[in-house]
Amino acid sequence: SLLWATFVYNPLAHWIWGNGGWLGRMGALDFAGGVAVHVGSGAAALAAAMILGKRRGYGTENLKPHNLPMTLLGAGILWFGWFGFNAGSALSAGALAGSAFVATHIAGTTGALAWIAMEWKMSGKATTLGAASGAIAGLATITPAAGFVGPLWAALIGVLAGVGCYFGILAKNRFGYDDSLDVVGIHGVGGVIGLLAAGLFASMAINPGGAGGLFYGNTSQLGIQAFTVLVTIVYAFVVSYILLKVIDKLFGLRVSERDEINGLDLSEHEETAYNF
């Protein structure tokens, strides 16, 4: 974690936000963390899933979340925290923070609605896990654009998140990697959609300190955003892959099969959440 923060997160954060960061100087828009947080972690998660391999029983045993009420509680806590994440990125309590706050909430709601609509269409059932996943997808996707778009564009971004990240989750079945927390499908795909959406929908009427998107006459912004996405994915994936490979060779990343069967609660902490 320390190495990843030092060699992946910190450089990405400096490039986009730092005083003199080259992506920032180029004009890339990222209000609250599409580059360093979501796309960067999505690319790193893909590298980790490839190196770690699949969990024992993946594809043959029931590995669904064991407690949906806890899942929904966690999603609610995340949703609440996201207001500080996004609105707080305005760095002061004012109109910009209020606009980012509203955009964040709207995208979370439309993301949840779009996800369960896709579930209903594809499988005939809308699920509470899907609602939670869609809300997080909407929140992740609005993150880079939260301070640049108004409520209507935020609603559309949430819909794009719900649909796009839903298919992003299905991709792991097609490509065969085991991403247990769906970081690639939700945060990675959502971050990409959000960064590109900022290049389309950003308005200087919302944030005079930013730049306008394609829909507001700035024909170059979408290209800048696409280049930013590409650079972030390549850098985060390559460096994360190297770090994980080195650590795996030196110390090992995966527990023994016996510890995996018994569960890490017992093998690492000698306790378990449920003593039946």
Please explain how this structure is put together.
With 276 residues, the chain is mainly alpha-helical. Helices cover 69% and strands 0% of the residues. The protein is built from eleven helices and no strands. Helix 1 packs antiparallel against helix 9 and helix 6 packs across helix 7 (151-175). The longest helix has 30 residues, at 221-250. It is globular, with a radius of gyration of 19 Å. The model has no long low-confidence stretch (mean pLDDT 95).
Topology:
Layout: H1 2-17, H2 22-26, H3 34-52, H4 68-87, H5 95-123, H6 128-142, H7 151-175, H8 183-201, H9 221-250, H10 257-262, H11 264-269
Helix pairs in contact: 1-3, 1-9, 3-8, 3-9, 4-5, 4-6, 5-6, 5-7, 6-7, 6-8, 7-8, 8-9
Order of helices and strands: HHHHHHHHHHH
Q: Biggest sheet: strands, sense, closure? A: none
Shape: globular
* Structural class label: mainly alpha
Radius of gyration: 19 Å
Tell me the helix content.
55-70%
